[in-house]
Every structure is written in structure tokens, then in C-alpha cells.
Amino acid sequence: MKSRRLISPLIIAALVSAVAWAPSPAYAYPVTPFKGTIRGGLTEGGVTWYNRSVGVQGYVSDNTAGSTTVKFEFYQGTNYDNWVNVGTQTRTASGNGENRTDFNFTQGAPVGGITWVEVYLCQDTCTIQRTLGRP
User: Fold this and answer.
1) Sign of CA dihedral 115, 130, 83, 91
2) Do the Cβ atoms of 56 and 74 come closer than 8 Å?
3) Given a cut of 70, is residue 132 above it in pLDDT?
């Protein structure tokens, strides 16, 4: 009987200790999807909103004799009137027929972080497809 009283608290202590050391789940950052089309060109993907920076994943495709470029402009600010551009990135798909360029990159930012991302598709000129705000 004494051994049962001694073993039970030891088992409980071991289980509590094991639970306390279990790895915590990874934090899921919010993702905002985007999609845009232009004469023979297409882009689709998502923007992952990290603390300051954003991750951009997706693809751009082209089905023209020229090329299609997706352009991302990254801004900081609360209202459109006070946005500050903190970076621009482009990715291009080109050639005759269906061509696709995948992308997966991170855009860093200063203190305050990126609050807006504008997505453009360009052939001869660029047209805005989406304006994405931090959730």
C-alpha cells in the first residue's frame, strides 16, 4: 500500500513534466491571397504578413509573344495620403507560348512594418490589380 502512495505522485509528476516540455505549435501568420489577369498574362499567389516584413509566394505566367511582369510595391502608413514606399520587386515570365515563373521571397521593412502591398501586372504599361492591407 505504501508503494502505491509513493508511485502515484511520481507518475503524476512525470506526466506533468512531460506536458510542460512538449513543443509549442508554430504560430500561423495571416495570408492574403491575390490574383490578376491582363491580355495573355496572369498572376496568382499570397502575401504572408509577418511582424515587419511580408512573404510573397505565387507565380506569373505569360501566353503572348512578349512578356508579362508582376510588380509588387510595398508601403508603410495608415492612410493612402501618408504611405511611404519601402520597396519594389518584380518577376517576369516571357517567350512565345505558355511560360510560368514561380516566386517566393521576403520583403523586409523598417520599424512599423509593411502595412500595404500593391500588385500590378505589366506588359506595355502597368495596371494595378489588387491593393492588399495588413489584416
Assistant:
1) positive
2) no
3) yes
Amino acid identity, residue 114?
A: I
Amino acid 28: pLDDT: 84
Comparison of pLDDT for 13 and 76, the residue scoring more = 76
Residue 34 neighbours by CB distance under 10 Å: 19
Q: E strands along 39-125, which residues? A: 41-49, 54-62, 67-76, 84-94, 99-107, 116-122
HSE-CB for 43 with a 13 A CA cutoff = 32
Q: What is the pLDDT of residues 28-73, one digit of tens each?
A: 899 999 999 999 999 999 999 999 999 999 999 999 889 999 999 9
Residue 91 in grid coordinates: 518577376
Q: Is 14 helix (H, G, I), strand (E, B) or coil?
A: helix
Helix extents (H) in 21-127: none
d(C-alpha 54, C-alpha 129), whole Å:
18
Q: Indicate if the alpha-carbon torsion angle 11, 14, 16, 22 is positive or negative.
A: negative
Q: Say if residue 8's pLDDT is above 60.
A: no
